[in-house]
Amino acid sequence: MAAAARLFIRGANSKLSIAPGSLGTTLLKLSPNCSSRTKTQRRHAAHFTFQPDPVPSQYGPTQKMNLFQSITSALDNTLASDPTAVIFGEDVAFGGVFRCTVGLRDKYGKDRVFNTPLCEQGIVGFGIGVAVAGATAIAEIQFADYIFPAFDQIVNEAAKYRYRSGNMFDCGNLTIRAPWGCVGHGSLYHSQSPEAFFAHCPGLKIVIPRSPIQAKGLLLSCIADKNPCIFFEPKILYRAAVEQVPEDPYTIPLSQAEILQEGSDVTLVAWGTQIHVLKEVASMAQEKLGVSCEVIDLQTILPWDIETVCKSVVKTGRLLISHEAPVTGGFASEISSTVQEECFLNLEAPISRVCGYDTPFPHIFEPFYIPDKWKCFEAIKKMINY
Amino acid sequence: MAAVSSMSKMYGLCFHAVRQTAGLKAYRLLQRRGFRVSVLQLQQTFDSSLEKPQFPGASAEFVDQLEFIQPNVISGIPVYRVMDRQGNIINPSQDPQLSKETVLNFYQKMTMLNTMDRILYESQRQGRISFYMTNYGEEGTHIGSAAALDPNDLVFGQYREAGVLMYRGFPLDHFMAQCYANADDLGKGRQMPVHYGCKDLNFVTISSPLATQIPQAAGSAYAVKRENTNRAVICYFGEGAASEGDAHAGFNFSATLECPLIFFCRNNGYAISTPTNEQYRGDGIAARGPGYGMLSIRVDGNDVFAVYNATKEARRRAVAENQPFLIEAMTYRIGHHSTSDDSSAYRSVDEVNYWDKQDHPISRLRHYMTARGWWSEDDERSWRKQSRKTVMEAFERAERRLKPNPELLFTDVYQEMIPSLNKQRESLWRHVQQYKEHYPLDLYEK
């Protein structure tokens, strides 16, 4: 146990030392000549403020839950109502590295919530097989950054199973879940948003929630949906996002974008964490520029709700799309291309994409990399003054 | 991946351990730090006065001599067989003593497959179908294993297992329809020839990427285990596909998750032009099984009874004991890899002739039958004539049939039609209406 503690202290500031506490826990003791207030040590605050949605009244009693708890709730509902449902992946048995599956193995049994060997291509391939045999498969990939070994199984197999077999076989019962997006310190391999890679693959559905209420409803829709779905969970929201979430199961429809606030001058489109950035940007635009923004949460990346976005752009004439993923080939390019095809004459300004740069996701440079509210605000200014 | 778990431990522990240490029991704390905790290990006392290794990762003794384990490739895992190359039973206790009717059926299925292969290979040469893969020399692996299974057992294949489908009763018309991609194709004309599938016969549709079916088979076997209906799953692949990462994944998952699954490797000596000594350095595929904790056997794939016996026993135990079995069936690919291949570029005609003439599953079974007076020269002549006629009739029917309606280009992408795809469909139709003389509409159903 002390060895494990030493492992994560290795490489950290040598002024810190460990004092063993009771029950095998450890406490970090700062030595006297180390100030905790120096600029170099203080970590950057989050780039957004989570804005909870109002308490839903139409789904029955609610409970305060954060994002990972709302996921657990959805999985709990699923295991309770669907006896074929199984959840598997790396480390899901003890509750998962993000605690999304806490308690489920004890409640439903080790044949239904189980660890797999460390092999993403195996996790997804196995999941496809479970689904093909008619059972509900919920596969967890530990970080979206590690989904790539499974890319062949997802794109060449899962997405094409129904089409290539003439509808004799399908893996509609498969849902893949993965933590997604920037987290403040995740760097190259714990921050990625890979939705664009999969958006190019007909046959898949890709869904990204912005909050606990959305997450539970959308995840339950993915599980119920008769097509293979990838559900990306914004990891930075796992603890930070807290809402009153209905305890009973409910579904939020896929491929229906949600207009979070109506506006007349600019349409702002995003998904996941970035919605909270855009909501703040919308306030800033109203306050500082007198500009009225319509904020749309796309929710489903594939198939995406072209109609809602285009209808909004016809109204406002300006579109800003924002995502953390690199701008080139990012999903904003698909939205931009389709909108200019459908709404060309309605556009007052070029469509703006405020996205990550075309670099791998950096560690210490994250505050400069991310499409923060100031960059979005500036982009709106440019569009208004075009 | 060690970095991941320490990273996630950092993320997890910083939040969880610091904030919630008070309420945690030691047991749950152990779990969260990713220690493999089993009840046994919790109860194990760590006593260093005992000289046995205490490592969680392996159960073993200490040794004080430095010695590398030698992989045994000179005399590897032996090849189980029942008949010699002339079709004589070697050890009578191993003769499955199948009825005359059953054995005749084996023979007729193997030869029917052979006849269909000859005709469809030729039809590709004549430009009637776009592509074909023959099964020459491997008929024994298909029929022997298929016969040992239950009809309800789920089959995942690679692409050279048409005999399994044939044994299960897939009609010639359906084989032809898929190869011709005509309107009778169960797959709706979407895939290249030989990518068969049949839901009713529990044969999952073939896909071109190699070895992808291996972890899928493990998943289906797991689901089937939970159903408790005494079904097994079998997964076929070649020795080349066994090099893919998916094969390693499938073997490991099926063993750790205790799946009722038979892995059936057709080791036919070549992966297109790549011979086995460029595919692996170890003792074939069977030797990998023990590495995964799997029971494994190597059999003579050209001996239909050996294949039958091994598959039968593997199936019985896989279902009874919920564990995977690995069967490596040694055989030889007499034909080219496909119609896109000319194997004289990388192997000698003499080598091919040896297998065709001296060690062929069909000949060996025929000798077994003739020795028992179950099959005569006359039977052979009339069967050859009849099977060829049957295949030709199906062939001609398939040739005349129209292709499926082009609407089927757009369906089954999702379970439901989606608006954007519907728009694309409409756009194609408008285009085809305008430029109809440039599209072969007459060949397709309306």
Automatic annotation (TrEMBL), chain A:
The keyword Transit peptide is annotated on this UniProt entry: yes
Cellular component GO terms, alphabetical: mitochondrial matrix
GO biological-process terms attached to the record: branched-chain amino acid catabolic process; response to nutrient
Function: Together with BCKDHA forms the heterotetrameric E1 subunit of the mitochondrial branched-chain alpha-ketoacid dehydrogenase (BCKD) complex. The BCKD complex catalyzes the multi-step oxidative decarboxylation of alpha-ketoacids derived from the branched-chain amino-acids valine, leucine and isoleucine producing CO2 and acyl-CoA which is subsequently utilized to produce energy. The E1 subunit catalyzes the first step with the decarboxylation of the alpha-ketoacid forming an enzyme-product intermediate.
Protein's recorded name: 2-oxoisovalerate dehydrogenase subunit beta, mitochondrial
Catalytic activity: N(6)-[(R)-lipoyl]-L-lysyl-[protein] + 3-methyl-2-oxobutanoate + H(+) = N(6)-[(R)-S(8)-2-methylpropanoyldihydrolipoyl]-L-lysyl-[protein] + CO2
Keywords: Mitochondrion, Oxidoreductase, Transit peptide
Record Gene3D superfamilies: 3.40.50.920, 3.40.50.970
E.C. no: 1.2.4.4
Cofactor requirements of the protein: thiamine diphosphate
Localization in the cell: Mitochondrion matrix
CDD domains: TPP_PYR_E1-PDHc-beta_like (cd07036)
Stretches assigned to the Transketolase-like pyrimidine-binding domain: 65-240
GO MF, one annotated term: branched-chain 2-oxo acid dehydrogenase activity
Pfam families in the record: Transket_pyr, Transketolase_C
Quaternary state and interactors: Heterotetramer of 2 alpha/BCKDHA and 2 beta chains/BCKDHB that forms the branched-chain alpha-keto acid decarboxylase (E1) component of the BCKD complex. The branched-chain alpha-ketoacid dehydrogenase is a large complex composed of three major building blocks E1, E2 and E3. It is organized around E2, a 24-meric cubic core composed of DBT, to which are associated 6 to 12 copies of E1, and approximately 6 copies of the dehydrogenase E3, a DLD dimer.
Automatic annotation (TrEMBL), chain B:
Example GO biological process: branched-chain amino acid catabolic process
Pfam family, one: E1_dh
Main location: mitochondrion
EC number: 1.2.4.4
Domain Dehydrogenase E1 component: 108-407
Localization terms from the record: Mitochondrion matrix
Highest taxon of source: Eukaryota
Cofactor section: thiamine diphosphate
Reactions that this protein is recorded to catalyse: N(6)-[(R)-lipoyl]-L-lysyl-[protein] + 3-methyl-2-oxobutanoate + H(+) = N(6)-[(R)-S(8)-2-methylpropanoyldihydrolipoyl]-L-lysyl-[protein] + CO2
Record keywords: Metal-binding, Mitochondrion, Oxidoreductase, Potassium, Thiamine pyrophosphate, Transit peptide
GO molecular function: branched-chain 2-oxo acid dehydrogenase activity; metal ion binding
Subunit structure: Heterotetramer of 2 alpha/BCKDHA and 2 beta chains/BCKDHB that forms the branched-chain alpha-keto acid decarboxylase (E1) component of the BCKD complex. The branched-chain alpha-ketoacid dehydrogenase is a large complex composed of three major building blocks E1, E2 and E3. It is organized around E2, a 24-meric cubic core composed of DBT, to which are associated 6 to 12 copies of E1, and approximately 6 copies of the dehydrogenase E3, a DLD dimer. Interacts with PPM1K.
Function according to Swiss-Prot or TrEMBL: Together with BCKDHB forms the heterotetrameric E1 subunit of the mitochondrial branched-chain alpha-ketoacid dehydrogenase (BCKD) complex. The BCKD complex catalyzes the multi-step oxidative decarboxylation of alpha-ketoacids derived from the branched-chain amino-acids valine, leucine and isoleucine producing CO2 and acyl-CoA which is subsequently utilized to produce energy. The E1 subunit catalyzes the first step with the decarboxylation of the alpha-ketoacid forming an enzyme-product intermediate. The branched-chain alpha-keto dehydrogenase complex catalyzes the overall conversion of alpha-keto acids to acyl-CoA and CO(2). It contains multiple copies of three enzymatic components: branched-chain alpha-keto acid decarboxylase (E1), lipoamide acyltransferase (E2) and lipoamide dehydrogenase (E3).
Name of the protein this chain belongs to: 2-oxoisovalerate dehydrogenase subunit alpha
Protein species of origin: Neolamprologus brichardi (Fairy cichlid)
